[in-house]
Amino acid sequence: RKDVLDQLPSVVSHRQMLEQDKEQLNMIADLYSGKIDLSDCIEGREIEGADILEVTITGYTKMALSDPYILFPESQKRPAKYKSPKTEEIIRILTEETNGEKTIIYTPYRRYMDVLVDTLKHSGTLPDCYKNPLCISGEVSSEDREKNKELFNTSDSHNVIIINDAGAEAINLQTAQCMILTTMPMTFGKLVQVVGRYNRIGSKHESLSLFYLLHEDSQDIDEYGIINQQGVLVTSVTKEDYEGMLDLDYLNSISDSDEKISENDIEYKIHHFGFCQLVLKYHFSLAYLNPTPI
After folding, report:
1. 245-291: per-residue pLDDT in tens?
2. How far is the C-alpha of 228 from the C-alpha of 191, rounded, in Å?
3. CB of 113 within 8 A of CB of 135?
4. Where are the alpha helices (DSSP H) in 155-244?
5. What radius of gyration, in Å, describes the C-alpha atoms of the chain?
């Protein structure tokens, strides 16, 4: 396994910290205040050991941090020029950071995927190679998935592909040099699977860029910390090196301990006693976050 990892490109992570806009803040406030009625979403559903309403609110909050208008599109009219902070940041990254390199955008939400496709197609600032976005999702047929994968890997006119969890496994996108994560995957294992779409043996790139889009003081950054702590736990058990994917500086910044995590310390220390129970409880709940296909 170490021999395999040694043949992979290095991964350089970028933590992009964003501020929530008023539409997001208002939507999340309405969710927690009860102004938005979620009774139809939770009727007849139960999660042992968890408050189903609280879990549902958490799920909708997670979506609102991508784009608040994907929550209830049938009752919300999207302002014509509205772009969420994450959408704006994606456009900025593709315009200023990626240098026309092939780029993967990950979102678990089909509705946000649709928003991104429309936004990229009609952007006035993007390079032309990013204006023909391809998609791999559960709604895309097997034949079209193969076609889109081939176009992405071979055509200079299709340098961006948007994937959700249906594209997170068993798809080779190794021509990509950049990946943008609009939302944290459910677990560290899922993160490894998503990143594995382009971090592969045979990549022509020596180094890969991985962008995390995170809102300050939000559920985003809480999940980021939990996934990184999961990664530390996995690394301590498997002894595998996920260099570039673990943000040790961030973990040290939120730790209550004076003892710091070091990349040279193979026996990584778990800072928070009871962390395993926290991860198990939290990610069990995450499996139920989407009351309807989004």
Report:
1. 888 888 888 765 555 555 444 333 333 333 444 444 444 444 334 43
2. 10
3. yes
4. 188-195, 219-238
5. 19
